[in-house]
Design brief:
With 103 residues, the protein is an alpha+beta fold. Among the domains are: 30 residues; 34 residues. Helices cover 35% and strands 9% of the residues. It has 2 helices and 2 strands. It has a two-stranded antiparallel ribbon with strand order 1-2. It starts with 13 loop residues before the first helix and ends in a 25-residue tail after the last helix.
């Protein structure tokens, strides 16, 4: 037989259980938002344009297609490589509503 941990919830009324669930949901939501704020502050959640181009010689190097071209793009283009050949396929998940914002 498994050992129960925590309070005996079977003694709570339906209204008390609903109130407890609302408090738990609110606390979990608060913690989630706090973690997101912390990750953004540390640079972990980057909410910018997704990369559109990748350096085939160094896959860690990407470019969103906005702003000045990085040196690796300029060097490849100087060698005759077409920008289109550096494109990254859009592999982001499709939202539940089936729409995807353009980059």
């Amino acid at each position: 037989m498994s050992e129960r941990r925590g309070p005996d919830l079977s003694r709570l009324s339906d209204a008390e259980l609903r109130a407890l669930r609302e408090r738990i949901d609110a606390e979990l939501s608060h913690r989630f938002r706090s973690r997101q704020r912390g990750e953004r502050a540390r640079g972990g959640l980057v909410e910018g344009p997704a990369p559109r181009y990748r350096n085939p010689e160094n896959p860690a190097e990407t470019w969103s297609g906005r702003g000045p071209q990085p040196a690796w793009v300029e060097a490849l283009r100087a060698r005759g490589v077409r920008l289109e050949s550096l494109s990254i396929e859009d592999d982001r998940p499709i939202p539940a509503d089936g729409t995807r914002r353009r980059r």
